[in-house]
Give the backbone structure.
Amino acid sequence: MTTPPPSSSGPASGEQRLLERLLAGDKGALARLISWAENSDARYPGLMRALQPRLGQAWRIGVTGPPGAGKSTLVNELTRELRRRERRVGVLAVDPSSPFTGGALLGDRIRMEERTIDAGVYIRSMASRGSHGGIARAAVDACDCIDAAGYAEVVLETVGVGQAEYDVVTAADTVLVVLCPGAGDGIQAMKAGILEVADVLVVNKSDLPGAERLVLDLEEAVHIRANSGLARSGDEWSAPVVACSAGTARGLEDVLAAIESHRAWLRAGRLDAARAAKRLAHVRRVAHEQLDEELFVKRGWETRARQELAVGKAPWDVVEGLLRSLREQA
Amino acid sequence: MTTPPPSSSGPASGEQRLLERLLAGDKGALARLISWAENSDARYPGLMRALQPRLGQAWRIGVTGPPGAGKSTLVNELTRELRRRERRVGVLAVDPSSPFTGGALLGDRIRMEERTIDAGVYIRSMASRGSHGGIARAAVDACDCIDAAGYAEVVLETVGVGQAEYDVVTAADTVLVVLCPGAGDGIQAMKAGILEVADVLVVNKSDLPGAERLVLDLEEAVHIRANSGLARSGDEWSAPVVACSAGTARGLEDVLAAIESHRAWLRAGRLDAARAAKRLAHVRRVAHEQLDEELFVKRGWETRARQELAVGKAPWDVVEGLLRSLREQA
């Protein structure tokens, strides 16, 4: 009988064990690592350094759209279908700002919980406030964790309202914008912004009246954009419009086929550049958080700003003074 | 007959004229100044420095809540009522991220346009993406502009989803969280977050079934919070719950009375500290934008980060290296 030797329980060896558990597919280890990322724990950077060579294998699918479009149902069905294809799936649901729609999402999450008993599915919710820093920073780090843990697909779901949520979803490789009929005259207003973000336009609840009209409207908008100056070059991806009914799983194959097409298109020589841009954006987000700590807290900018504001200095002038002190060092 | 002398049209004199027009109540001048703020125009800081002594007169009312709660109707009616009391009102509507609910808000805005023919009302919409920097930074600067222009009330409306929108609304002196019956079981989930933000809880559409129940639920939640460790000190404001029906203008007086109570409470020796904290948060937001420009653009951090990422360095390690170079200067 082998008894494990008493572990020399320095934090470094604890981290080594966490790493081993993570690579062995332990969901608890993954959950721990994501929590460290969320809280900017000092142990996170070292672990991710070790995991860096394992990154980039997962395909990151962003799912966004207005409240009520049926995103969570779609994510649930997509997950089921991907599992049928024997892909391991990590789902990161970025709930919108704690208070307001948390309840509705909670309901959707409960349906999603069916998936959690499957060892090949990892599900995590992240509140869009409450993490140490910005939500986009924490969400992208969480995707990295799931990627490093060996999941083949990461589904990143956000409610598409607000700049932070936009930042989150654009960190994905393929972005699905989910709409449903009945949004009415909102369509005109949303076209421009949607087309900018979407790699695949999904018209969900396709059995409802108005679905065909919405598909046609969106297709026309995509077409107009492709032939206008808005498409920056000849090498622009043109988002397909796919109708589906996530509730009855109809059209799901088409959604997956559209994701697959976009993936193939990116992989034909475009993926490295696309991901490099997203990594750079992430460096900026991490830097913004760390700079605040470094300058406002450690270097006393906070105290100085407080004093200058107290004597009536304008905020922009306070900042200009702080930046000047930084420049003078250089 | 007096002919105006040909103006010496250097930019400085142009800014002086803008200032004069602003102080004379010219809405076009105010619109121009807000656009400068939005775009971080180089002329903005100088003008705001000149206007600094005029700031702080306006009362800033934040209005937030989930989509469909009737925020815009309430803002419209509040504006009407404040005008009846001969207060000049500036309304800043921060639309959520361009694409998704822009349409619905647009409809509400059209109703609001009735107010625009009134010289004592200024209305401005701000997209929550597309401004040079963060939306909260731009929105608070826009409030400063409206304040400096002499409006007695600034109403700051956001859809309460997402971190950026939360940042916006918490820059207000008095925050109204607007809810309506029918949100159902979401209430439990939202209580904590709502109570943290709200100075006044408004139950809108009070003629709908479930309104009384919602009022009672919220009152109970406020009561529980007041008697728990969540309220930080004995000197905590306890948010009143006010029922109203903005569509029929019923209960509006009560909403205004609640705002007035909160204003009186803050003015009893608490306002300076509350506003100082908000100004400091604003300095941080301005600094984050300016630091990105200073370091990533002017100092070449962007190029360096790009190179280091290209050779497989982890984002957090890239940032650590950049920060080290900053520390070594100090």
